[in-house]
Amino acid sequence: GKVRAPTHIISTISDDRGEEPCYGGVPMSSIVEQGLGVGDVISLLWFKRSLPRYCTRFIEICVLLCADHGPCVSGAHNSIVTARAGKDLVSCLVSGLLTIGPRFGGAVDDAARYFKDAYDRGLTPYEFVESMKKKGIRVPGIGHRIKRGDNRDKRVELLQLYARDNFPSVKYMEYAVQVETYTLSKANNLVLNVDGAIGTLFLDLLAGSGMFTKPEIDEIVEIGYLNGLFVLARSIGLIGHTFDQKRLKQPLYRHPWEDVLYTK
Ligand code: ACO
Ligand code: LMR
C-alpha cells in the first residue's frame, strides 16, 4: 500500500497551494469580493472562523484605538531612539515592540485571565483586589501613568460604548467597571486601562457570540491571544514614528546629563 511520509510541520490556518491563497479556507478573491476587512482576516487567521460583523468591527476598533499613543510612551520612545541611531525599519519596529509586556500594552491576556477567574469564582471586587494585594500582584488592566478618575481614558469609554450598543452580554465588562469603582476608591490613578478594557470585553465577545465552546474560550485565554491585538495595533504607530524621525532627519539621540541623577 501507500506509505505516507511523516510531515515536519502541521498547519491549519492558511493554504497557498491552489490557484489562490486561502485564509481559513476562504479564498482571497472571496475576501476582496465580499468587502471584508482586517477584522475578518484576523478572525480567520487567529480564531479560525468567520465572526459576525459586530465582532470583527470590535476587533477593528481595538486596532484603530491602540495604533498609537504619542511619542512619550515606552514603545514609541524606543522606536524613535532606534530610528535616530540610523537603524532600519524592522530594527526600529522590534525595538519598540520589545517594550510591550506586563506594564505596557501587554497586560491584556493577564487581565482576561485574572478577571475571568475572579468573576467565574463569584469574587466581589473587594475580594478580588484584596486577594491580589495579598499575593503581591498588581491587578492587570488597572492603573495608568497619566489617566485618572477625573481624566478617564477615552479609548476605554469608546470600547465600552460600542460593546454596550452591540454585544449581547457585557457581564465581564460590568464586573471590570465594578472593580474599577473599588480601585478608584483606593487611589485616583487606578482606572480601568485600555488593556483591561480589551481583555474583559474580549471575554464578553468570546462568551456572548455563541461562536466559541467553553474549552475553546479557556484555550484562547490560556494560550494568550489577546496581547496580539495590542502588538498588531501598536506596530502601526511604531512604523509611523520610525518614518517620522527619518523624514525629519533627526540626529543620533543622546539623553541630557541634566536629566540623569548621578549618584552613588
Ligand atoms: N493594581 C494594584 N495596585 C496598583 C496597580 C494595580 N494594577 N497599579 C498601581 N498600583 C498601586 C500600587 O500601590 C503601587 O505601589 P507599588 O509600587 O508599591 O506596587 C502604586 O499604585 C504605584 O502607582 P503609580 O506610581 O501610579 O503606578 P506606576 O506609574 O508605577 O504604574 C502601571 C503604572 C505600570 C500601568 C501600573 O498601574 C500597573 O502595573 N498596572 C497593571 C499592568 C497594566 O495594566 N498595564 C497596562 C497599562 S495600559 C497600557 O500600557 C496601554
Ligand atoms: C499607551 O497606549 O501607550 C498608553 O496607554 C500608555 C501611556 O502611558 O500613555
Account of the protein in words:
With 264 residues, the protein is an all-alpha fold. Helices cover 56% and strands 2% of the residues. The protein has a 3-stranded antiparallel beta sheet with strand order 1-2-3. Helix 4 packs parallel to helix 12, helix 5 (89-97) packs across helix 12 (227-247) and helix 8 packs parallel to helix 10. The chain binds acetyl coenzyme *A and (2S)-2-hydroxybutanedioic acid. The site of (2S)-2-hydroxybutanedioic acid (LMR) has 5 residues, from loops. Acetyl coenzyme *A (ACO) binds at residues 102-105, 107, 138-145, 187, 189-190, 193-196.
SSE inventory with pairings:
Blueprint: E1 14-15, E2 22-23, E3 26-27, H1 28-33, H2 38-46, H3 53-66, H4 74-84, H5 89-97, H6 108-120, H7 125-135, H8 154-166, H9 171-186, H10 194-208, H11 214-223, H12 227-247
Antiparallel strand pairs: 1-2, 2-3
Helix pairs in contact: 2-3, 3-8, 3-12, 4-5, 4-12, 5-12, 6-10, 7-9, 8-10, 9-10
The chain binds acetyl coenzyme *A and (2S)-2-hydroxybutanedioic acid.
Residues 102-105, 107, 138-145, 187, 189-190, 193-196 line the site of acetyl coenzyme *A (ACO).
